[in-house]
């Protein structure tokens, strides 16, 4: 009777657990479907522009200059250009507070990267990704309202594009009138014209932002998938008076005005309490973006020290099987990767940067941007780490801003004359810093938080991806905290093992004694 009762109780417990599990699975699926439907309703239905600009008389003429288009725009939108001229996109700098530096101004004028290095002295080329025309690195430029480029963000014709080496002017083939008559909210393509191609090509810099996302599957990006929610960049990166939400930590330092997952998904997005406890120390991106560069490869390293090789006196390039440059005479050697597993860091939303003129040693790789954070104040964040070698003045102990771009030979630009000393001298003079005449190429690193290319829920990381003592575990190299399943203490482990062994011995011994006692009782 007792045996049957135990079996019945056991079956009831198993049945209850099975029902609970099935309920949780169904609830989770319904929740995911519900969130998907909410996002589809909110972002899937693309609103039509409130105004049809093709009917405006002022836009029916032929425009000879892009500045004339801007003048037409601000004749109606009388204050918008003033907002643009206060924005980071226009000024290429912002006031930031950095721990250890205090309040400082940061931007493309005084920061370096380990891709094309820096914009200073190279504005003719770099201004292809500036929201202005006829870019000059002088204070007067930033006051010229007619040079605000409205079309680069608001063109919906799909035909507008900046020209190469034209200081921000549009390509000569652009029909300015047609673009002006077809304006609306920024699209993926208009945002991507700069952000997809930064660094000189598709997906070069970010790894999680590229042209495939204009029409991709849910496996590549659940938010931007054309057959899914089909969100646009501005759905998350909304703007208030042309101040766009979001931070790019190659040039940003402050933990403010960030575009975050919690805006839509909340602080506790899971049905599982165990998963929700992770959100205090684990960024959403860590589990939900298990890899980046899913459609096209991204650049993982750039070695400027090998640049300058010529064939028959002429520059040349070499490509891999996917068509990615692995060597260019003007830039050096590159490596690429696809479906990349991120590296992980503690991140609290603040960062420091190498600012032009900072003196650094080269005993270890120079961090061009250092993401701050620890277990006490940050969250685990996935990052792309881009590694490189770039020009450095070993006498002054400063990284070099070289002059790289010119339209013809003889001006000292490296891409034309292949002379590091001359290019460095001109570039450093442009930024007002000394140059010793010596050039070496130390290692550098840049850290790019991975925020895009969110995977479907069933492709997220599992517990075992992180909670493992395998050297290939996702968090094997992240220090500063105790991680169950990965970490241990030899003394505690030794004590625990022997406690388990002794418990087993005691259990077996106790059972044996009970059996012997029972046998003796029967014999008696």
UniProtKB/TrEMBL annotation:
Protein known as: Cytochrome c
GO molecular function term, any single one: oxidoreductase activity
Lineage: Bacteria, Pseudomonadati, Bacteroidota, Cytophagia, Cytophagales
Record InterPro entries: Multihaem_cyt_sf, Multiheme_Cytochr_ET, Octahem_Cyt_c
Domain of life: Bacteria
Keywords: Plasmid, Signal
Organism: Fulvitalea axinellae
Record CDD domains: Cytochrom_C3 (cd08168)
Cross-referenced PANTHER family: CYTOCHROME C-TYPE PROTEIN NRFB (PTHR35038:SF5), DISSIMILATORY SULFITE REDUCTASE SIRA (PTHR35038)
Protein's UniProt keywords contain Signal: yes
Keyword Protein transport: no
